[in-house]
Design a protein that fits this description.
The protein is an alpha/beta fold. The chain has nine helices and 16 strands. The strands form two sheets. Strands 7, 8, 9, 10, 11, 12, 13, 14, 15 and 16 form a ten-stranded mixed beta sheet that branches. Strands 3-2-1-4-5-6 form a six-stranded parallel beta sheet, with helices on both faces. Helix 1 links the parallel strand 1 and strand 2. It starts with 7 loop residues before the first strand and ends in a 7-residue tail after the last strand.
Length: 363
């Protein structure tokens, strides 16, 4: 049987995600598996080097038309690393150019109004679309799944061993903290992330939906970023509270004015707790899991693992396989819930749920 060709990356957008995260993860994947993909990497960026240095060994073109001449759709896996506010236009252009295999940065789009258009593109063009979701795909998330009984109930055998599925009892609550100082990027007017809901929460929202199941919003709050006289509406902090269909409650909080980075998820069960510490940045790929006081540290390069699996799926899993639709539905839910949270914050009487963050003094 004829083997599918080894795919070649096309990165659209050489900013922080494209140049800093995707390219590095691609190179790490190639170091670990020489057949993961074929080079060289082609990139599209009309202003290369403006947001991040152009990496060595990347062929940069100013337009998709020129990139297509170098890397036709049949060989390419496209990494869409543009800001979410411009996502629909980029996806439309890629579809018109014939590209069908796409890895899209989170969130899929900036709002529910664009979601229907992307769903129509996906159906009309038979897209195989993978949204970057390395938290749900991480080894740490896998360990958390092992702690949760498949139906969310206690272990049928009555075990109280925390290491066994259901040994901690039924999952009751998830509390996620995602803090990082993000002043410089937030103060840019062209950053492309409209609110704090669009920056960090897509990671944790995808995680809790994949672990605790479908949910509905019960509360949302948004604060502004204020430094001296500078104000960036909605880019201070974001709070999202959910009620899952199985009764689990989730609380996701992200503060982009925090003095330190933290990515922590606490899972409260009937008979104990598990605390997952995700890597706070790309500077170190070690994570930590604390189950009832017992701490374990291990390496978990989640983005590299996610990209390796994505490329393997593009090689082996046809577009009509239901797993593509299931993945899309999960990330559509992420967009829907974030959009609903933003709408709640906009519609609420000022001061009730849209609050002012503490003012940070300008230097």
């Amino acid at each position: 049987m004829k083997q599918p060709p080894i795919r070649q990356p096309l990165i659209v957008g050489l900013g922080r995600s494209g140049a800093g995260l995707h390219l590095r993860a691609l190179r790490t994947a190639l170091d670990r598996s020489p057949d993961a993909w074929r080079g060289p990497v082609v990139a599209v960026d009309p202003r290369p080097g403006e947001r991040a240095p152009v990496p060595d060994g990347v062929t940069v073109t100013p337009s998709l038309e020129e990139a297509r001449a170098l890397l036709p759709p049949g060989r390419a896996v496209v990494h869409v690393c543009t800001p979410p506010a411009a996502r629909l236009a980029v996806l439309t252009e890629l579809c018109e150019a014939g590209y069908r295999d796409l890895i899209v940065e989170k969130p899929l789009v900036a709002g529910a109004g664009e979601l229907a258009a992307v769903a129509e593109l996906r159906a009309r063009h038979g897209l195989r679309l993978a949204v970057v979701a390395h938290w749900p795909a991480s080894a740490l998330a896998g360990r958390l799944r092992e702690l949760i009984a498949p139906d969310g109930s206690t272990d049928p055998g009555g075990s109280t061993d925390p290491a066994r599925p259901g040994g901690l009892g039924r999952l009751l609550r998830v509390d996620v903290t995602q803090h990082k100082p993000r002043f410089t990027r937030s103060l840019r007017t062209d950053d492309g992330h409209p609110t704090a809901f669009d920056v960090e929460l897509p990671h944790s929202l995808g995680l809790v939906l994949s672990l605790a199941g479908p949910a509905e919003t019960t509360r949302a709050r948004l604060t502004d970023l204020r430094i001296g006289e500078a104000v960036r509406p909605g880019l201070g902090s974001a709070l999202l509270e959910l009620r899952h269909a199985n009764g689990v409650r989730s609380r996701l909080f992200s503060d982009l004015t925090a003095p330190v980075r933290e990515r922590r998820a606490l899972f409260a069960f009937e008979r104990g707790t598990a605390v997952a510490h995700f890597a706070p940045s790309d500077a170190d790929d070690h994570v930590q899991l604390v189950v009832d006081g017992e701490r374990e540290v291990f390496r978990d390069d989640a983005l590299t693992a996610f990209l390796r699996r994505a490329y393997a799926r593009f090689a082996d899993v046809p577009a009509e396989d239901p797993s593509w639709a299931e993945d899309f539905a999960l990330h559509a839910d992420v967009v829907r819930l974030l959009d609903e949270a933003k709408r709640l914050c906009a519609e609420t009487v000022p001061g009730a749920r849209r609050e002012e963050a503490p003012r940070v003094a300008a230097p």
